[in-house]
């Protein structure tokens, strides 16, 4: 079920649509910090993230074809929550995630609204890029507790130790505190698209 967002009218069906994501430089800085201090880097994915957002606008949809009740074909659906296809779906998801995360004692970064931190005797960073979450920290129990807590708030997929971040492969030599990043799969895909995969 997807909304026909292209029929929405600005100022009537939605106001703002902007939704931030973690900045590339924030991701690189925190990965560098993780390498330097030998922090854990764990990854999670929020399943159907946009369905978690609440909407403030009053939005109605036609009934889904094939699911109408005989004699009630003229009725419409009044949306209570966000749904894929809405112009404001990403924004409403981000607002919901922000409220939930800050309610768990995470502090939002002043320069990047999708980077959060909990500090004390342990350090934990949380980064959000649409529906992808990176957890970086030095306390395995705290990381595990955070993953468990996130799973009580949203339907999550635990991806374990991060190996790919936004299509970038991560490789580490923790004994030497080295972290490398490569986009070789992306390069191979581009070469294949232009029929240059055998070029040297």
From TrEMBL:
Domain Reverse transcriptase Ty1/copia-type span(s) in chain numbering: 1-197
Recorded superkingdom: Eukaryota
Protein name (Swiss-Prot/TrEMBL): Retrovirus-related Pol polyprotein from transposon RE1
Organism: Sesamum angustifolium
Taxonomic classification: Eukaryota, Viridiplantae, Streptophyta, Embryophyta, Tracheophyta
